[in-house]
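User: Histidine kinase. Structure?
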Amino acid sequence: MSSAKKVLIAEDSSVIQNLTKKILTIQNYKITSAKNGEEVIKALKDTDFDVILMDINMPKMDGMECARQIRSMEEKEKANTPIIAITGNAKNYSMDDFTSVGINDYIPKPINFDTLVKAVKKYTS
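Assistant: Predicted structure:
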């Protein structure tokens, strides 16, 4: 039996964070949560994750800047962790904007949980 894949959920809305956590826990993922980009960077220093779900609009450090910092990390494994953006402002960004900072994919809000599970499976299998 392989060990559970680790997902870091970076989301400042506790409602979205809790729903996402419940959905992915049912799918046997091990979840760590962060409320802002600074917490994401701290969590990554301590743990390797299989995928990061990154809200774009967070306090202290937004998802775009956080993705840039992850991609510039010295440890290549951490720097290459897949990042899936989650945003309610998808109209304000193009996929090119996301890829320019190293984001692999994005899911618009309100989150479709089937889409979420498919995206997480895509990057963790």
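The chain has one domain: 6-124. The radius of gyration is 13 Å.
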